[in-house]
Amino acid sequence: MQQVKSFLKENRLLMLASFGLPFFILAFIYLTIGIYPGSSRSILASDAFSQFSNFHASFRNAMLGKQSFLYSWHTSLGLNYLSLISYYLGGIFTPLVLFFPNQLMPDALYFLTLLKVGSAGLAFWFYAKHTFKLDKWAHVALATTYALMSFIVAHSEIIMWIDALVYLPLIIWGIDRLILLKKPRLLFFSYLLLFISSFYMGFMIGIFSVLYFLVRLIGNFKKNKNAILPYGITSLLAGGAAMIIILPAVLDLRTNGEELTQITQLKTEATSFLDIIMKNMIGVYDTTKYGSIPFIYIGLLPLAFCLFYFVTKAVARKEKILFAALFAILIASFYLVPLNLFWQGMHAPNMFLFRYAYLFSFLVIMLAGYGWEQFKVQHWPKLVAIMIGLMLVFCLAMGLRGDHEYTYVKFGSFVLTICFLLLYILVFTFTAKNSFTKKTARILLLAVVCSEAAINTNGMVHGILNDWNYASRSLYTEPYPAIKNLVDQTKAANKTFYRLENLDPVSSNDSFNYGYSGISMFSSIRNRHSSSYLDQLGFRSRGTNLNIRYTNNTLLMDGLTGIKYNLTKTPLNKFGFKEKAKNADYQLYENDYALPLAFLTDNTAAKIVQPPNDNLTSQTNLVNKLSGNNLRYFDFLPLSLVKTDNATVTDNGNFLRLTEQKANLAKDITWSVTIPAHQQAYLSLYPEDFAELESSTVTILINGQKRKTQINISGQYYDLGYYDKETIITFTASFYGTKSIGLQNPQVVTLDTTAYTTAMKQLQANGVPLKTGNRSATGNFTATSDQLLVTMIPFDKGWQVKIDGKKVPVTAFQDAFVSVKVKQGSHTITLSYLPPGFILGVVLFITCLILFYFFDRFYKEKRNKLAQSTSIKI
């Protein structure tokens, strides 16, 4: 303990600098674009707005006891929350959100981003301090460039990834300690924290660290072969202990994860032979959307010393070849699809490509440290030659690029790159000539390194600003009080489970933040089976079900899924919905025909036939079978074209195409239709080709009210209102975002509210209201015969059902929802959830910790003997 205190006292300034320099450089760059605590512009760019702000808010709710860490009713219909934590919220930093109210989550993510970036710098300083025999301020310089590498800053909106960059240098340091000193403790706990923080990034770093161990092993097999077993045991025990969170996540992904990406081509898209050169210039940002190339920049000084490592004679040739082979694997991965997919779990990323590129950057800076420690004054001509060579390579690359290639590499980046290389040449030349004192040389070099890092950080941040934009704080914070107040009112008014949806949401994940259950969600962790079934029933959730949206479906699905409340900024004209309260811009409406969470039906309902690609027939067949009716709910009415504006209309009877006449203006088409009495009307708009939509939107103007939705992610039934008398209505659809859009035979769909009322009342009479706990639901019911109890709880193998205290088999209704067969009579039902694999994960966690304790004690004697016989400092 005394040694630790002495170490901290001796190095506190260096540690503070290693943490503080990247922290304040990034904070300053944010400040230059108007981002700071309480600023009008928030740090919420890209997925940070819809996902991470809400997910972190939900984690805070869990810490306050408002939901379980294992299951959440507030994630769409309900979800394995531990699995979501494992992907988005793991790590030691996340609990700090407790100190920020949900309304201030933009500030929480601002501080967490800076804290994680600073911690990455500090972690690398520890690694460098104990690895490289360099001037103490050189360690700080390397730590700063590491923490502000392009990958970290360009992907800073994906806040969960930064945790992995904190542990990477500690893991490599841990491997070195294990090999040289037989000390496995650092490696064990670094691996454990990495895997718990992010199993996704943990997979990549795990592979890289194994390759690094093999390089060290092969480099001196005779000396290092004794480390094979300790490394294997330490890694396996760390991985086993991490199963407390990895195992439930893996089992969940086996059920709900995406299929492996098929390899259809050899070379990756958008990459070219000049990528490595271009992306090593200062401030080069292309995009983090599709069509990007890897972010590998980590600084010109590390790059130069990395090259010096390979030309200096002080490093063994075998070691150079091994590390060159590791570089070759990473570079080949950038260009070859099979290798690229392998690093990412054989699954093609949804944007944010080459997610393992930081491993290249780390390898550069690691070898830079080894190269720098071999650098002597007499070597400065060789270093200068390398920097001049880099200038020539950058000049050649700029000259060779085509007119339409690398257009994102601005001439200013090229000039800055050349200028900083010249500055480094001057600093090292004057230092070699003893023109500076040692202290002056330190300060000057650190100043140049920090200036370069700041300029590159500025380029990355402005790249995000142009690519995604940093959302206004008001978009997140201003609606919060009103929504929260109305949601809280619904909670106070209900003792049993219900669902709520916001027609004017802040984002697709509002339910996480405000603590209500709905339909909409955007998450890589999801229940694909229930989402896929809901897509079949008209809630849009295409492809891999990353998204599911509530908007633009029918009353039939409102009732069936238990949507008891709607929030809206505009008056709502939906049959059965009555206004209950107002707050600021929002109004709360209550649905008289919402079903409870469960209901009884005939046993044959499980065999219902639901045709693909026909959601209205699917809705009809489902509701009729569940309610025991044979009713007709939907009719179709033709539209009469009234007028168009800025649109050329082509209609062949099956498809209608609108083409803009003037660019960047909406394409308007106005129709009229006669709605019969007692009908809820919808405009049916189904795209001819989803691929052409991009971010195309449509705004429906009806009775003076507007509602705007994004066509490719919301449903196809746009509400035109309820009419208790026959009415002629005229409405306008305004399309924007693409030059042309094709639609499949637009028409009006009407819902017979008399038939709808009959079916819903029958289902309500058979309803089983359930009171939900954090991860349970209980209720009482009476079955008039042997029946099937169907719930609107997404089916998951973690659900266990007991009737009258006895466990009964659980079945998946339509492979989507929890259902159970019940006997005639009065019963008490209890449903409880535990993530599959969680108990085994807990057992493995405890067991592996105990085993590692004894393993570490076993090596204590050898470590003591080694400490007495060596003076190696590590």
From TrEMBL:
InterPro entries: Uncharacterised_YfhO. Keywords: Membrane, Transmembrane, Transmembrane helix. Coiled coil: none annotated. The chain crosses the membrane at residues 12-36, 81-101, 108-128, 134-154, 161-180, 186-215, 227-251, 290-310, 322-343, 355-372, 384-402, 408-431, 443-465, 833-855. The keyword Chaperone does not apply. PANTHER family: INTEGRAL MEMBRANE PROTEIN, INTEGRAL MEMBRANE PROTEIN-RELATED. This is YfhO family protein. It comes from Candidatus Enterococcus myersii.
